[in-house]
TrEMBL record:
This is HTH HARE-type domain-containing protein. It comes from the Bacteria. It comes from Candidatus Colwellbacteria bacterium RIFCSPLOWO2_01_FULL_48_10. GO terms for biological process: DNA-templated transcription initiation. One of its GO terms (molecular function) is DNA-binding transcription factor activity. Keywords: Transcription. InterPro entries: Asxl_HARE-HTH, RNA_pol_sigma70, RNA_pol_sigma70_r4, RNA_pol_sigma_r3/r4-like, RNAP_delta_N_dom_sf, WH-like_DNA-bd_sf.
Amino acid sequence: MDFAKVDSLINKAIASQNQRSAKIITNRYGLESKDIKTLAELGVSYSLTRERIRQIQAHVMKTIKEEMARHKDVTAFLKFVNGHLDKMGNVRASHLLAKDLKGIMNPNYDEAVFLNRLHFLAELIGEPKVAYGDDNWHDTWHNNPESHKKARAVVSHLLDFKEHNFSKFVEDAVKKFGLSEKTIINYLGISKEFGTGPYGDLGARHWIHVNPKTTRNKNFLVLKKVGKPMHFREIADLINKLEGVKRSHPDTVHNELIKDPRFVLVGRGVYALRENE
């Protein structure tokens, strides 16, 4: 799929507008930069009200859509994207879709700008649909509202799953939703509450092995993974080597090992998990 042809159409359509309108649209959608300007920010830049900026945006989008909607290269692009979404269960988190398509289309932009241009095109043509995210959800593309609804249900099931065991969750979800393992994992990717822990474990972000926030839980995770008793200084050393995990001082590690009933002293400064005793 050659994105360059579609990209060229976008650039020509915007260039056909007057200079101010073209600049407003470019900045509003981040077509040349990862930064996306709000209506208020653009209003300040051009000494216009937010409503006037919105009117300019709407007029330009309508004009460009009329020029591009039925163009064969745009139609081919949409067919390709919809085909890719079909393979993913009709749903894909925007940042993951951008990675997918960037690897295939090799556009002349960094990933953030490429994603902005994809969002612009989707909003311009009206398909596939983009559900914009918030604190809990990533921006998400979908071409089937029922599939998008089911993807959110899969995420809710993960967050409510009582056993913090990802393999068991996937096995249960495959049966519950009638989906493949690949689709289940893809659907989870639309949620910011789904993540990968410091040892590569998948699961909900409130699970200890995915996001160990406290020193106590870091102690537990390290001892669980190592599978044998360790001196508190060794535990601290391993904690401080974990990627994406805040460092812990050895004395803090030791104090938490003493206070937490999940751990048992088995030697001078050496601790084990009580469950393994």
